[in-house]
Specification:
The protein has about 240 residues and is mainly beta. Helices cover about 5% and strands about 45% of the residues. It contains 2 helices and 15 strands. The strands form 3 sheets. Strands 1, 2, 8, 9, 10, 11, 12, 13, 14 and 15 form a 10-stranded antiparallel sheet that branches.
């Protein structure tokens, strides 16, 4: 069965629970961003065949992409540092569980939001007070500078962040970033491995005001860097 937000939403109303310590007093909200997904950045193994990424993670989206573990093993890669076949990434002490949009059973749907050069995107969130709000991101060809507008019922708060190049290590005490998936390889257009490790998908915490009701997030990126947006996850205050 295809795993997607479309299937999860009616059953769970955006809510997925986890046993991680970060989630004891809050509800984990997997935000529905299906309507803004515009790229397939991950090669999947679907019905015994590789479905190659079309808009990847590097070289302005045309140089390299990620592979699922099944796809990498199918290609004959030895001990590949690939994305897990299960797109539900487990919670850690630093972040809740995160559901990404790729799926080995899906050869059609888009998986990510690719932003080449200057661009923007936005999405609604279920109206609530949030203690944390995470954006899963990669930036290649250097860092990407972004402005994030948090739309509350009583006004807008703007913040600026630098999305680090996805090859850069994140410090353990970074106040905004942690790893979602660490130490990945990357693959070219023919699904040939071009680098064996050290690439990441990072999580940015945009630190919403937990006393205000958040309804929408708008992201604007400057010209430099090539950025891919993978998912958004919030911790709603009960």
């Amino acid at each position: 069965m295809k795993i997607s937000f479309v299937h999860f939403i009616p059953v769970l109303s955006f809510i997925l629970l986890s046993a991680s310590p970060i989630q004891k007093k809050e509800k984990v909200i997997q935000i529905n961003i299906d309507h803004i997904l515009n790229a397939r950045s991950v090669t999947t193994l679907t019905n015994g065949k590789l479905v190659t990424w079309t808009k990847g993670i590097d070289g302005n989206g045309i140089a390299d992409g990620y592979l699922t573990m099944s796809a990498a093993l199918f290609k004959g890669d030895n001990n590949p540092h690939a994305l897990p076949d299960n797109p539900l990434i487990p919670a850690t002490a630093k972040h809740p569980e995160v559901l990404l949009h790729y799926n080995n059973n899906d050869s059609i749907s888009n998986q990510t939001v690719a932003v080449s050069g200057k661009g923007s995107f936005g999405y609604d969130v279920p109206s609530s007070q949030y203690s944390e709000m995470f954006l899963a991101l990669t930036s290649s060809e250097g860092a990407s500078q972004i402005k994030v507008d948090l739309h509350y019922t009583d006004g807008i708060e703007s913040k600026s962040f630098e999305v680090p190049d996805y090859y850069k290590d994140i410090q353990a005490n970074d106040p905004n970033y942690c790893y979602l998936i660490h130490d990945l390889a990357k693959w070219g257009k023919m699904n040939n491995m071009t680098e064996k490790d050290h690439h990441n998908i990072d999580l940015l915490n945009i630190h919403p005001n937990p006393k205000r009701i958040l309804t929408h997030i708008q992201v604007e990126k400057t010209e430099t860097g090539y950025m891919v947006f993978w998912a958004s996850i919030g911790l709603a205050v009960k």
